[in-house]
Design goal:
single chain; mainly alpha; 2 domains; globular
Length: 189
Protein backbone atom coordinates (compact mmCIF):
# COMPACT_ATOMS: atom_id res chain seq x y z
CA UNK A 1 0.00 0.00 0.00
CA UNK A 2 2.82 2.43 0.79
CA UNK A 3 4.24 1.91 -2.75
CA UNK A 4 0.86 2.90 -4.19
CA UNK A 5 0.77 6.05 -2.04
CA UNK A 6 4.32 6.89 -3.12
CA UNK A 7 3.26 6.50 -6.75
CA UNK A 8 0.38 8.91 -6.17
CA UNK A 9 2.68 11.41 -4.43
CA UNK A 10 5.14 11.56 -7.28
CA UNK A 11 4.39 13.38 -10.55
CA UNK A 12 2.85 11.07 -13.10
CA UNK A 13 4.82 10.60 -16.30
CA UNK A 14 3.30 12.03 -19.45
CA UNK A 15 2.54 8.58 -20.86
CA UNK A 16 0.14 7.93 -17.95
CA UNK A 17 -1.26 11.41 -17.32
CA UNK A 18 -1.93 12.20 -21.01
CA UNK A 19 -4.05 9.11 -21.75
CA UNK A 20 -5.88 9.54 -18.42
CA UNK A 21 -6.87 13.07 -19.43
CA UNK A 22 -7.65 11.93 -22.98
CA UNK A 23 -9.99 9.21 -21.63
CA UNK A 24 -12.28 12.02 -20.47
CA UNK A 25 -13.23 12.87 -24.07
CA UNK A 26 -15.01 9.64 -25.04
CA UNK A 27 -16.46 9.38 -21.53
CA UNK A 28 -18.07 12.80 -21.87
CA UNK A 29 -19.18 12.24 -25.46
CA UNK A 30 -20.80 8.91 -24.62
CA UNK A 31 -22.61 10.39 -21.61
CA UNK A 32 -24.62 12.99 -23.46
CA UNK A 33 -22.27 14.76 -25.86
CA UNK A 34 -20.74 16.95 -23.17
CA UNK A 35 -17.57 18.96 -23.71
CA UNK A 36 -14.69 19.18 -21.29
CA UNK A 37 -13.86 22.70 -20.21
CA UNK A 38 -13.61 24.78 -17.11
CA UNK A 39 -14.21 28.40 -18.17
CA UNK A 40 -17.92 27.79 -18.82
CA UNK A 41 -18.37 26.78 -15.18
CA UNK A 42 -18.14 30.47 -14.19
CA UNK A 43 -21.13 31.22 -16.42
CA UNK A 44 -23.06 28.31 -14.90
CA UNK A 45 -22.17 29.48 -11.39
CA UNK A 46 -23.45 32.99 -12.13
CA UNK A 47 -26.67 31.55 -13.59
CA UNK A 48 -27.09 29.30 -10.54
CA UNK A 49 -26.70 32.24 -8.15
CA UNK A 50 -29.38 34.24 -9.95
CA UNK A 51 -27.41 36.98 -11.69
CA UNK A 52 -29.97 39.08 -13.55
CA UNK A 53 -28.28 39.56 -16.93
CA UNK A 54 -29.76 38.00 -20.07
CA UNK A 55 -26.52 36.10 -20.69
CA UNK A 56 -27.15 34.11 -17.49
CA UNK A 57 -30.83 33.31 -18.06
CA UNK A 58 -30.92 29.68 -19.15
CA UNK A 59 -31.48 26.27 -17.58
CA UNK A 60 -28.08 25.96 -15.91
CA UNK A 61 -29.04 22.63 -14.29
CA UNK A 62 -29.52 20.96 -17.67
CA UNK A 63 -26.62 22.67 -19.47
CA UNK A 64 -24.05 23.05 -16.71
CA UNK A 65 -24.99 21.10 -13.61
CA UNK A 66 -22.56 18.32 -14.47
CA UNK A 67 -19.86 20.94 -15.17
CA UNK A 68 -20.27 22.46 -11.71
CA UNK A 69 -19.95 18.96 -10.23
CA UNK A 70 -16.75 18.46 -12.25
CA UNK A 71 -15.30 21.72 -10.89
CA UNK A 72 -16.35 20.80 -7.34
CA UNK A 73 -14.61 17.44 -7.81
CA UNK A 74 -11.46 19.17 -9.04
CA UNK A 75 -11.42 21.47 -6.00
CA UNK A 76 -12.21 18.64 -3.56
CA UNK A 77 -9.71 16.28 -5.21
CA UNK A 78 -7.01 18.95 -5.15
CA UNK A 79 -7.67 19.69 -1.47
CA UNK A 80 -7.60 16.00 -0.53
CA UNK A 81 -4.46 15.39 -2.55
CA UNK A 82 -2.82 18.43 -0.97
CA UNK A 83 -3.62 17.15 2.51
CA UNK A 84 -3.08 13.41 2.07
CA UNK A 85 -0.59 13.01 -0.77
CA UNK A 86 1.83 15.86 -0.21
CA UNK A 87 5.34 14.99 -1.31
CA UNK A 88 7.74 15.89 1.52
CA UNK A 89 10.59 16.46 -0.94
CA UNK A 90 11.04 19.96 -2.38
CA UNK A 91 10.03 20.41 -5.99
CA UNK A 92 13.04 20.18 -8.26
CA UNK A 93 13.37 23.35 -10.30
CA UNK A 94 16.02 23.69 -12.97
CA UNK A 95 18.86 26.03 -12.16
CA UNK A 96 18.30 27.79 -15.49
CA UNK A 97 14.73 28.60 -14.41
CA UNK A 98 15.93 29.88 -11.04
CA UNK A 99 18.55 32.03 -12.79
CA UNK A 100 15.98 33.45 -15.23
CA UNK A 101 13.60 34.35 -12.39
CA UNK A 102 16.40 35.94 -10.37
CA UNK A 103 17.53 37.93 -13.42
CA UNK A 104 13.95 39.19 -13.76
CA UNK A 105 14.03 40.33 -10.12
CA UNK A 106 11.73 37.59 -8.87
CA UNK A 107 12.34 35.49 -5.76
CA UNK A 108 11.39 31.83 -5.89
CA UNK A 109 10.60 30.43 -2.46
CA UNK A 110 9.24 27.10 -1.21
CA UNK A 111 5.73 28.04 -2.33
CA UNK A 112 6.87 28.13 -5.97
CA UNK A 113 5.13 31.45 -6.36
CA UNK A 114 7.26 34.60 -6.59
CA UNK A 115 6.14 36.84 -3.74
CA UNK A 116 6.75 39.90 -5.91
CA UNK A 117 3.65 38.86 -7.84
CA UNK A 118 1.61 36.50 -5.64
CA UNK A 119 1.17 38.58 -2.48
CA UNK A 120 -0.87 41.59 -1.46
CA UNK A 121 2.25 43.78 -1.51
CA UNK A 122 3.12 42.44 -4.97
CA UNK A 123 -0.41 43.03 -6.23
CA UNK A 124 -0.15 46.70 -5.28
CA UNK A 125 2.87 47.25 -7.51
CA UNK A 126 2.36 48.29 -11.15
CA UNK A 127 3.91 45.04 -12.45
CA UNK A 128 1.89 42.88 -10.04
CA UNK A 129 -1.32 44.71 -10.93
CA UNK A 130 -0.73 44.25 -14.66
CA UNK A 131 0.23 40.58 -14.22
CA UNK A 132 -2.64 39.56 -11.95
CA UNK A 133 -5.56 41.92 -12.58
CA UNK A 134 -5.11 42.93 -16.21
CA UNK A 135 -3.72 39.49 -17.11
CA UNK A 136 -6.60 37.76 -15.34
CA UNK A 137 -9.14 39.91 -17.16
CA UNK A 138 -7.47 39.17 -20.50
CA UNK A 139 -7.46 35.42 -19.82
CA UNK A 140 -11.17 35.47 -18.95
CA UNK A 141 -12.05 37.69 -21.90
CA UNK A 142 -9.96 35.56 -24.25
CA UNK A 143 -11.57 32.33 -23.06
CA UNK A 144 -15.05 33.72 -23.73
CA UNK A 145 -14.03 35.25 -27.08
CA UNK A 146 -12.43 31.97 -28.19
CA UNK A 147 -15.54 30.06 -27.13
CA UNK A 148 -13.68 28.11 -24.46
CA UNK A 149 -10.50 27.77 -22.47
CA UNK A 150 -7.28 25.88 -23.11
CA UNK A 151 -8.69 22.70 -21.58
CA UNK A 152 -11.85 22.72 -23.66
CA UNK A 153 -10.14 23.48 -26.95
CA UNK A 154 -6.97 21.43 -26.42
CA UNK A 155 -8.66 18.34 -24.98
CA UNK A 156 -12.15 18.18 -26.45
CA UNK A 157 -11.89 20.42 -29.51
CA UNK A 158 -8.71 18.88 -30.90
CA UNK A 159 -10.03 15.37 -30.23
CA UNK A 160 -13.08 16.28 -32.32
CA UNK A 161 -10.76 17.64 -35.07
CA UNK A 162 -12.33 21.11 -34.88
CA UNK A 163 -10.42 23.66 -36.94
CA UNK A 164 -11.45 26.50 -34.60
CA UNK A 165 -9.92 24.66 -31.66
CA UNK A 166 -6.67 24.16 -33.55
CA UNK A 167 -6.54 27.89 -34.25
CA UNK A 168 -7.41 28.71 -30.62
CA UNK A 169 -4.73 26.35 -29.24
CA UNK A 170 -2.13 27.81 -31.61
CA UNK A 171 -3.15 31.26 -30.35
CA UNK A 172 -2.89 30.15 -26.72
CA UNK A 173 0.63 28.83 -27.29
CA UNK A 174 1.70 31.91 -29.25
CA UNK A 175 0.34 34.15 -26.51
CA UNK A 176 2.19 32.11 -23.89
CA UNK A 177 5.46 32.41 -25.78
CA UNK A 178 5.07 36.16 -26.29
CA UNK A 179 4.23 36.61 -22.60
CA UNK A 180 7.16 34.47 -21.42
CA UNK A 181 9.83 35.90 -23.68
CA UNK A 182 8.67 39.49 -24.25
CA UNK A 183 6.04 40.78 -21.81
CA UNK A 184 7.31 39.27 -18.52
CA UNK A 185 10.94 40.33 -19.01
CA UNK A 186 9.81 43.86 -19.91
CA UNK A 187 7.27 44.01 -17.06
CA UNK A 188 9.66 42.82 -14.36
CA UNK A 189 12.87 44.48 -15.56
Amino acid sequence: MSEFVELLRSPWPWYLAGPAIGAMVPLLLFTGGRRFGISSSFRHLCAATGVRADYFRYDWRREGGWNLLLVAGIVLGGALAGMLLTDPNPVAIAEATRADLTAAGLTLDDRLAPREIFSLAGLLTPAGFVAMIIGGFLVGFGARWAGGCTSGHAITGLAELQRGSLIAVAGFFAGGLVTTYAIWPWLFS
